[in-house]
Write a structure and sequence with these properties.
Order of helices and strands: HHHHHEEEEEEEE
Radius of gyration: 19 Å
CATH topology of the largest domain: Umud Fragment, subunit A
Domain HTH cro/C1-type: 8-63
Number of helices: 5
GO molecular function, one term: DNA binding
InterPro entries: Cro/C1-type_HTH, Lambda_DNA-bd_dom_sf
CATH class of the largest domain: Mainly Beta
Strand content: 15-25%
CATH architecture of the largest domain: Ribbon
Protein name: Transcriptional regulator with XRE-family HTH domain
Organism: Halomonas fontilapidosi
Structural class: alpha+beta
Distance between the termini: 26 Å
Shape: elongated
Number of domains: 2
Number of strands: 8
CATH superfamily of the largest domain: Umud Fragment, subunit A
Length: 195
Protein backbone atom coordinates (compact mmCIF):
# COMPACT_ATOMS: atom_id res chain seq x y z
CA UNK A 1 0.00 0.00 0.00
CA UNK A 2 2.97 2.31 -0.65
CA UNK A 3 0.96 4.54 -2.97
CA UNK A 4 -2.10 4.80 -0.70
CA UNK A 5 -0.70 7.67 1.41
CA UNK A 6 0.08 9.95 -1.55
CA UNK A 7 -3.30 9.03 -3.12
CA UNK A 8 -5.15 10.04 0.06
CA UNK A 9 -3.33 13.39 0.02
CA UNK A 10 -4.02 13.86 -3.70
CA UNK A 11 -7.73 13.11 -3.30
CA UNK A 12 -7.96 15.30 -0.18
CA UNK A 13 -6.48 18.24 -2.08
CA UNK A 14 -8.81 17.55 -5.05
CA UNK A 15 -11.74 17.66 -2.60
CA UNK A 16 -10.38 20.98 -1.24
CA UNK A 17 -10.25 19.61 2.32
CA UNK A 18 -7.64 20.25 4.96
CA UNK A 19 -6.55 17.39 7.22
CA UNK A 20 -8.83 18.46 10.08
CA UNK A 21 -11.91 18.60 7.84
CA UNK A 22 -11.17 15.16 6.38
CA UNK A 23 -10.51 13.78 9.86
CA UNK A 24 -13.92 15.01 11.09
CA UNK A 25 -15.67 13.36 8.12
CA UNK A 26 -13.90 10.03 8.65
CA UNK A 27 -14.13 10.07 12.45
CA UNK A 28 -10.39 10.06 13.21
CA UNK A 29 -7.87 12.66 14.37
CA UNK A 30 -6.01 14.93 11.98
CA UNK A 31 -2.80 13.29 13.24
CA UNK A 32 -4.14 9.96 11.92
CA UNK A 33 -4.72 11.58 8.52
CA UNK A 34 -1.09 12.83 8.59
CA UNK A 35 0.13 9.32 9.45
CA UNK A 36 -1.95 7.80 6.62
CA UNK A 37 -0.67 10.33 4.10
CA UNK A 38 2.98 9.94 5.15
CA UNK A 39 2.76 6.15 5.15
CA UNK A 40 3.58 5.89 8.87
CA UNK A 41 0.33 3.92 9.19
CA UNK A 42 -0.02 1.54 6.24
CA UNK A 43 -2.80 -0.74 7.42
CA UNK A 44 -6.22 0.90 7.24
CA UNK A 45 -9.26 -1.23 8.12
CA UNK A 46 -12.05 -1.78 5.60
CA UNK A 47 -14.58 0.35 7.50
CA UNK A 48 -12.13 3.27 7.61
CA UNK A 49 -11.35 2.84 3.89
CA UNK A 50 -15.07 2.97 3.08
CA UNK A 51 -15.52 6.07 5.27
CA UNK A 52 -12.44 7.66 3.70
CA UNK A 53 -13.71 7.07 0.15
CA UNK A 54 -17.10 8.48 1.13
CA UNK A 55 -15.52 11.55 2.77
CA UNK A 56 -13.39 12.14 -0.33
CA UNK A 57 -16.45 11.64 -2.54
CA UNK A 58 -14.73 9.03 -4.68
CA UNK A 59 -15.27 5.34 -5.39
CA UNK A 60 -13.35 2.97 -3.15
CA UNK A 61 -11.70 1.55 -6.27
CA UNK A 62 -10.11 4.95 -7.04
CA UNK A 63 -8.76 5.20 -3.54
CA UNK A 64 -7.25 1.72 -3.78
CA UNK A 65 -6.14 1.57 -7.42
CA UNK A 66 -2.56 0.44 -7.99
CA UNK A 67 -1.91 0.09 -4.29
CA UNK A 68 -1.28 -3.64 -4.41
CA UNK A 69 -3.98 -4.21 -1.82
CA UNK A 70 -6.20 -7.24 -2.15
CA UNK A 71 -9.34 -5.26 -1.33
CA UNK A 72 -10.93 -4.09 -4.55
CA UNK A 73 -14.71 -3.85 -4.64
CA UNK A 74 -16.39 -5.65 -7.53
CA UNK A 75 -19.73 -4.75 -9.07
CA UNK A 76 -22.55 -7.23 -8.54
CA UNK A 77 -25.03 -7.45 -11.39
CA UNK A 78 -28.27 -9.42 -11.63
CA UNK A 79 -26.93 -11.54 -14.51
CA UNK A 80 -23.92 -13.82 -14.86
CA UNK A 81 -20.96 -13.85 -14.84
CA UNK A 82 -20.14 -13.60 -11.16
CA UNK A 83 -17.95 -10.57 -10.42
CA UNK A 84 -14.95 -12.71 -9.50
CA UNK A 85 -15.18 -15.30 -12.29
CA UNK A 86 -12.56 -14.08 -14.71
CA UNK A 87 -9.80 -14.85 -12.20
CA UNK A 88 -8.12 -11.44 -12.28
CA UNK A 89 -9.93 -10.16 -9.19
CA UNK A 90 -8.21 -10.48 -5.87
CA UNK A 91 -9.88 -11.74 -2.75
CA UNK A 92 -9.64 -10.35 0.75
CA UNK A 93 -9.02 -12.05 4.05
CA UNK A 94 -11.29 -10.90 6.84
CA UNK A 95 -10.02 -11.02 10.42
CA UNK A 96 -12.15 -13.44 12.45
CA UNK A 97 -13.30 -10.61 14.73
CA UNK A 98 -14.91 -8.86 11.75
CA UNK A 99 -17.24 -11.79 11.09
CA UNK A 100 -18.65 -12.77 14.50
CA UNK A 101 -20.90 -15.79 14.42
CA UNK A 102 -19.66 -16.85 10.99
CA UNK A 103 -17.94 -20.15 10.44
CA UNK A 104 -15.95 -19.37 7.35
CA UNK A 105 -12.37 -19.51 6.25
CA UNK A 106 -10.69 -18.68 2.98
CA UNK A 107 -10.89 -15.73 0.67
CA UNK A 108 -13.87 -13.48 0.22
CA UNK A 109 -14.57 -10.86 -2.41
CA UNK A 110 -15.55 -7.30 -1.63
CA UNK A 111 -18.72 -6.59 -3.65
CA UNK A 112 -21.12 -3.67 -4.11
CA UNK A 113 -24.29 -3.47 -6.22
CA UNK A 114 -23.54 -2.14 -9.71
CA UNK A 115 -25.14 1.22 -10.53
CA UNK A 116 -28.83 0.74 -11.31
CA UNK A 117 -28.97 -2.82 -9.93
CA UNK A 118 -31.45 -3.70 -7.16
CA UNK A 119 -30.98 -6.57 -4.70
CA UNK A 120 -32.95 -7.66 -1.65
CA UNK A 121 -31.04 -6.94 1.57
CA UNK A 122 -28.60 -4.53 -0.18
CA UNK A 123 -28.89 -0.82 -0.74
CA UNK A 124 -26.96 1.34 -3.16
CA UNK A 125 -23.48 1.91 -1.76
CA UNK A 126 -23.52 -1.15 0.53
CA UNK A 127 -20.35 -3.19 0.64
CA UNK A 128 -20.44 -6.92 1.33
CA UNK A 129 -17.84 -9.64 1.64
CA UNK A 130 -18.98 -12.76 -0.22
CA UNK A 131 -17.28 -16.12 0.25
CA UNK A 132 -17.84 -18.19 -2.92
CA UNK A 133 -19.52 -21.49 -2.05
CA UNK A 134 -22.09 -23.86 -3.46
CA UNK A 135 -22.54 -25.51 -0.06
CA UNK A 136 -25.01 -24.48 2.67
CA UNK A 137 -23.13 -24.19 5.96
CA UNK A 138 -25.38 -22.08 8.19
CA UNK A 139 -28.45 -19.86 8.01
CA UNK A 140 -27.88 -16.41 6.61
CA UNK A 141 -27.70 -14.33 3.47
CA UNK A 142 -26.50 -16.05 0.32
CA UNK A 143 -25.91 -15.03 -3.26
CA UNK A 144 -27.97 -17.44 -5.35
CA UNK A 145 -28.66 -18.15 -8.99
CA UNK A 146 -32.45 -18.18 -9.22
CA UNK A 147 -33.14 -19.58 -12.68
CA UNK A 148 -30.57 -17.36 -14.39
CA UNK A 149 -30.96 -14.27 -12.20
CA UNK A 150 -28.52 -13.46 -9.41
CA UNK A 151 -30.28 -12.61 -6.15
CA UNK A 152 -29.59 -12.24 -2.44
CA UNK A 153 -31.80 -14.45 -0.27
CA UNK A 154 -31.91 -15.46 3.37
CA UNK A 155 -31.41 -19.22 3.26
CA UNK A 156 -32.42 -21.59 6.08
CA UNK A 157 -32.67 -25.34 6.51
CA UNK A 158 -35.80 -27.14 7.67
CA UNK A 159 -35.62 -29.84 10.37
CA UNK A 160 -35.82 -32.39 7.53
CA UNK A 161 -32.75 -30.89 5.84
CA UNK A 162 -34.49 -29.10 2.96
CA UNK A 163 -33.33 -25.62 2.04
CA UNK A 164 -35.82 -22.75 2.04
CA UNK A 165 -35.29 -19.11 1.27
CA UNK A 166 -36.87 -15.78 2.13
CA UNK A 167 -36.99 -12.50 0.28
CA UNK A 168 -36.45 -9.23 2.14
CA UNK A 169 -39.51 -8.08 4.14
CA UNK A 170 -41.33 -11.37 3.62
CA UNK A 171 -42.17 -14.01 6.21
CA UNK A 172 -43.19 -16.46 3.50
CA UNK A 173 -40.73 -19.34 3.22
CA UNK A 174 -40.19 -20.33 -0.39
CA UNK A 175 -39.11 -23.88 -1.15
CA UNK A 176 -35.81 -24.43 -2.86
CA UNK A 177 -36.42 -24.93 -6.58
CA UNK A 178 -34.38 -27.18 -8.88
CA UNK A 179 -33.42 -24.08 -10.92
CA UNK A 180 -31.75 -22.47 -7.84
CA UNK A 181 -28.17 -22.90 -6.73
CA UNK A 182 -25.97 -21.37 -4.06
CA UNK A 183 -23.09 -19.22 -5.28
CA UNK A 184 -21.72 -17.60 -2.12
CA UNK A 185 -22.32 -16.68 1.52
CA UNK A 186 -22.40 -13.04 2.63
CA UNK A 187 -20.04 -13.04 5.60
CA UNK A 188 -19.81 -9.28 6.28
CA UNK A 189 -21.97 -6.28 5.38
CA UNK A 190 -21.17 -2.57 5.63
CA UNK A 191 -23.83 0.05 5.06
CA UNK A 192 -23.01 3.60 4.00
CA UNK A 193 -23.99 6.16 6.61
CA UNK A 194 -24.45 9.90 6.24
CA UNK A 195 -21.78 11.93 7.97
Amino acid sequence: MDTLGPRIKELRLEAKLNKAALARRVGVSDVTISYWESGAIRQIGHERLVALAQALNCPLSRLLEETGTRAGPLFLRSRMPLPWQDGRQKGIELPIEMVPGQHWDGDCFLVTPAPGEQFDFLKEGDLVAIAPSDIFRQSGLYLIDDDGTLAIRHVDQTPTGELIFHRENSDEAMPWAPACRLLGKLVAHWRMQSL
